[in-house]
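Item description
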Amino acid sequence: MSTSDSHESAMDGTRKNRMPVALICSLGVCLFVVFVADVALAQVSSGSERRATAVAPYDLTAWLDEQFGRIWKEVGVEVPRVDDGTFLRRVYLDLHGRIPSVAETRDFLRDESPDKRHRLVESLLVNGTRADRNSEQFAAQFARMWRRMMLPPGGTNAFMAQQFEPWLAEQFRDNTPYDQFAKRLVTARGDDGARAAAFFAAVGGNPEGYATAFSRIFLGARLGCAQCHDHPFAKWKQKDFWGLAAFFAGTTGGQQGGPASGKIEEMRKSTISHKDVEYAAKFLWGDQAEIPADKLPREVLADWMTAKDNPNFAAVAVNRMWQALNGRGLVAGVDDFDLAAPEERGPFLDELAGRFKYASYDMRWLIRGICTSRAYQAPSASADADEASVVTGRRPLKVLTSEQVFDSLEQALMLPITRSNSDSARHNGTRMQMVSRFDESVGDSPEEYSAGIPQVLMLMNGRITADAISLERSRTLKAVVEAPFLDESSKLDTLFLATLTRYPTEKEQTVLLEHIRTQPNDEDRRAAYDEIFWALLNSPEFVLCR
């Protein structure tokens, strides 16, 4: 019998003891739906960018609260803060890429300190032994997040994307200022280029690929359509595309399909030929570039791109970070930022970008300020809401990334994580298989739920979930069901905390306890906990960041 056949056989035996899906839903477990939402930064007048001043860490929080408070007051809406459990789950998923443990949840819920949310954000961000560095868990999570943005799953050579993560993790761990982060990547060569070579290879390994990728990532302009002809929707002309590509004309290394360890080098060349036309290096919304004798073309481009008077660089950065943490950018089209109308950008977004500049492009400062703001702590859109937006004070519901789903399962099931343990799903290929399967239908933004049936079926029928509902193999279930100091209500509470980071509602508790207590014998009562745990793991709420 094959491995898959044995898994199906085991699952068939398990399914016979499960509650019907209709009953599961009637118990109130599958509570969440995906909401259709639309964000627009309305009720904010347009205007020129105002000069911003550097601010202390939590002054950004105060400034954001002032801006959103004014908007909400103008439209007459009251925006409450989410409860502690929702905030805890949200910030753990965003900053560490997983749900919190039962112990972490209980400790936070018991803490009555008024500043506990600020302290939690700080503890998740900052390295516990070196205050100048960020935590390893945060660095790993944001490396995955930024890698997905820079090299979307399913793209050409996307298989090389994970080789690029260590370089990204280093930038986030060291809290490299965002302008320096961009410069290091655009000008990567030599030893540093060896670590970033996977990115250059993944985007095509040629000047055209580099121009397309860097303009989208750092300037929010998709120039690809202008490679062969003038852009049909934007202002970009073919000469704009090839003028940008000319900065990379002398770049060699990181070739498509080549080894990711290859070094990135550069000759002094700033012109490129396309269909017998010679194009000189030219800035996107400027004149032809002058290349000083002491600089290479990519260095000139990086200086222009990260200059404080560049209208898009800082604004695109804060817009991307806003989308990553809140589900949707202040300008919804994060990759089409150049098409945003003036009223979408400012003055709110442009002033936030200005503050980011004068905070020396400190990403920790920006993330900390957003995560402790009222906007971040606003509730997600509910079923009867017309829309999720800045004006209504409701966030779109975010969908977990493939890695977040696995890492949250790993946490909820208390799976072994050491390489020496053959059952470690992190190292025996199970994690890679699950992430790859989920990535087949990944959405374009955090709020887009397109995984749907394939994702749910894999969770329901996969080996990890099968083991999770086995009292013999499930660490979490065994620990809960066999704990002599927990009564039925406490066991139910623990299963909810382990999966959904909250206690059951009164209705859920009443119905589920009745289901457990009406079982005819001890064996069936133990099986009832299996069913409940399985239903919680497979509920839409588990794969959503509420």
Notes: DSSP finds 25 helices and six strands in the chain.
